[in-house]
Specification:
This protein has 424 residues and is an alpha+beta fold. It has three domains: 87 residues, Rossmann fold, CATH 3.40.50.20; 70 residues, Dna Ligase, domain 1; 227 residues, D-amino Acid Aminotransferase, Chain A, domain 1 (2-Layer Sandwich). The protein has twelve helices and 23 strands. Strands 12, 15, 18, 19, 22 and 23 form a six-stranded antiparallel β-sheet that branches. Strands 3-2-1-4-5 form a five-stranded parallel β-sheet. α1 links the parallel β1 and β2. α5 crosses α6 and α7 runs antiparallel to α8. The protein is globular. The model has no long low-confidence stretch (mean pLDDT 95). It binds adenosine monophosphate and glycine (GLY). Adenosine monophosphate binds next to β7, β8, β16 and β17.
């Protein structure tokens, strides 16, 4: 099968690494890819939102399956664009249509979906310019902390956790009246704060059947001990030690099954990944977000743990035959440690040469923000690369990944040194 993978991050490097191992994958293209994906297929300089260029590429290269990595093209309707394109009617696409992608694209849509289908989540109310004063009154009467979420896509930045009423009122005003998170963010979901432990669960579905992939825990803050600003993710572990059968059953029965049924009931076709972000409160799962794609860096620990052929799974999702496949897992623990450019998640420099990439032995190195300049791998993003190692415990896997990170160098490199700390 000739496959085109869209994206350029660590998630795509991990997906490409796994797909390239499949005997079913005869040719892999990555658009635009990074300095890591060049070794696994052919990088094509096409932006993930350039639908016309992607469609033309699919036609000329006889692409049979497109795997969409990031959310933006999904929310913008790449599935509809490609399936409506003359000559691409039979193209298989991994990634939902525009309506399904609203699970991530609109917090208000996701909350209404959960409410409609009885899926446990934080209590909420929705406000915009039309009921602004009602919103102010609601904030004043609500216990603290309180969570404000911009409705639309905000690259992970549209959530404010407010400890004081003044902060909440100011955040509310700046979102609705000053469009702090853009036009789509002028609608605000105000949500009860849930105090618990976050984990992520990944589902591959064809809209009817599903396969549950292993869970992961992401480390979102920049600083050691979960301090400082939020990032895209500084590391991840899978499996998560406290996720036992009882919790897994609750997750599946209370959330995964009603989510897939809900999509079916609402008449929303869905072929692709659903990433469910959970807060586990006193042993009970609550959904804090849906994403219509895999997570990054969670993919860098989840995908290496699959013993099954990923292309077989994706093909089954695309052809509605997921009930015929089963998932085999590597029982070991995987831990990914991410290296970022100094200054991230604020301003940072790009273009620094990366050395030591050939000294990584048994670990997997997934490029997140790298590019090739005259044959040299250089930094090109805030998050630069993830090192994933396997071991029988989180502590051992983390130690191995940290050791490999020591061997890799670039100017102003920074890693969290405590990924997996609470499980040691
Ligand atoms: P989201 O973009 O919805 O994933 O939110 C970003 C982060 O904000 C999450 O990863 C959580 O750490 C936090 N968060 C979101 N919603 C809540 C909530 N209701 N209670 C506590 N923390 C939350
Ligand atoms: N690591 C969180 C995300 O991919 O959204």
């Amino acid at each position: 099968m000739r496959i085109l993978l869209l994206g350029s991050g660590g998630r795509e490097h991990a997906l490409a690494w796994k797909m390239a191992q499949s005997p079913l994958c005869t040719q892999l293209f990555i658009a635009p890819g990074n300095a890591g994906t060049v070794k696994l297929g052919i990088n094509c300089p096409i932006a993930v939102t350039d639908f016309e260029a992607i469609a033309t590429f699919c036609l000329t290269e006889h692409i049979e399956m497109v795997v969409v990595g990031p959310e933006e093209p999904l929310v913008k309707g790449i599935r509809e664009y490609l399936t409506d394109y003359k000559g691409l009617e039979t193209l298989k696409i991994i990634g939902p249509g525009q309506e399904g992608a609203q699970l991530e694209g609109s917090k208000a849509f996701a909350k209404a979906f959960m409410e409609r289908h009885g899926i446990p989540t934080a209590r909420y109310k929705e406000f915009s310019a039309t009921n602004y004063e009602e919103g102010v009154a609601y904030l004043k009467s609500h216990p603290l902390p309180i969570v404000l979420k911009a409705d639309g896509l905000a690259a992970g930045k549209g959530v404010l956790i407010c400890e004081t009423l003044a902060e909440a009122l100011q955040g509310f005003e700046s979102m609705i009246r000053e469009a702090r998170f853009g036009e789509a963010g002028k609608k605000v979901v105000v949500e009860q704060f849930l105090n618990g432990i976050e984990i992520s669960v990944f589902v591959l579905t064809d809209g009817k059947e599903y396969v549950l992939l292993p869970e992961a825990k992401d480390y979102k803050r920049i600083g050691v001990g979960d301090t400082g600003l939020n990032t895209g993710g500084m590391g991840a572990v899978s499996p998560v030690p406290f996720v036992d059968k009882t919790l897994w059953d609750k997750i599946e029965k209370r959330v995964v099954v009603p989510t897939i049924h809900g999509l079916k009931k609402d008449g929303i076709p869905y072929c692709g990944f659903v990433f469910i972000g959970f807060m586990i409160v006193n042993g009970d799962p609550y959904v804090i977000e849906y994403n219509c794609r895999m997570g990054d860096p969670e993919t860098e620990v989840v995908i290496p743990r699959l013993a099954s052929d990923l292309v077989v799974l994706l093909h089954a999702a695309a052809t509605g035959t997921l009930q015929e496949v089963s998932l085999q897992l590597d029982p070991r623990t995987a831990c990914a440690v991410v290296a970022v450019s100094g200054g991230y998640p604020g301003d940072y420099q790009k273009g620094y040469p990366i050395t030591g990439l050939d000294q990584t032995q048994e670990a997997l190195v997934f490029h997140m923000g790298t590019t090739l300049e005259k044959g040299q791998v250089v930094t090109s993003g805030g998050r630069v690369l993830a090192v994933t190692s396997f071991a029988t415990s989180v502590a051992e896997a983390a130690t191995r990944s940290q050791a490999v990170q020591h061997a890799i160098q670039f100017n102003d490199k920074y890693c969290r040194t405590d990924i997996g700390y609470e499980f040691s």
